[in-house]
Please model this.
Amino acid sequence: MPLYRCIVPPNVTTYEQRAEIAERVTRIHCDVTGGLPLFVHTFFAEDDAGMLPADKRALMLGSIRAGRTGEQKARLVAELAQSLARVLDLADENGVGRYGRRARTLGDGGRGHPARARRRGGLDREAHLLIAARSKL
Model:
């Protein structure tokens, strides 16, 4: 299930902006991957602790299933960054990293489920995308 988490400073986004971001994330994810909209989830968190880097006004972390091509991941990052920047009226940052790591479940203490991994012929994997948008200069 694709999960996208958007972190923004407190009191910066309206409910309407969040709804528009969620709609765009769902549309972009489905256009790029061919997935079904009902599986895409977008969450928002306000950065009350002030942990966002000084030049960043929004961060989005996307967790998608493994098996997506490099081209699909690059397109997701580019389109999500542009969309986030447009909705929040920010300068977008395209030079962001993406990386893959093992999928873990909370119930297994982070070790992975060996029986499930054996059935699928290897370790379960998921890919993560990091999208950052910075303030306009």
Remarks:
- Residues 94-115, 117-124 have pLDDT under 50 and may be disordered.
